Amino acid sequence: MTGAGTGIGRGIARALAAEGANVVVAELNQDTGMKTAMEIDSFGMHSLFIPVDVRSREQVNQMVSKTLDKFGGIDILVNNAGVSSIAPVLEMSEDDWDFNMDVNAKGTFLCTQAALKDMVRRGRGGRIICVSSIAGKFGDKYYSHYSASKFAVIGFVKSVALEVIENQITVNAICPGRVATSMQEREIEWEAELSKTSAEEIKKAYVQSVPIGRLETPEDVAKVVVFLASDDAAYMTGDAIEVTGGMFLGS
Question: Would you say residue 74 has pLDDT above 70?
Answer without folding.
Answer: yes
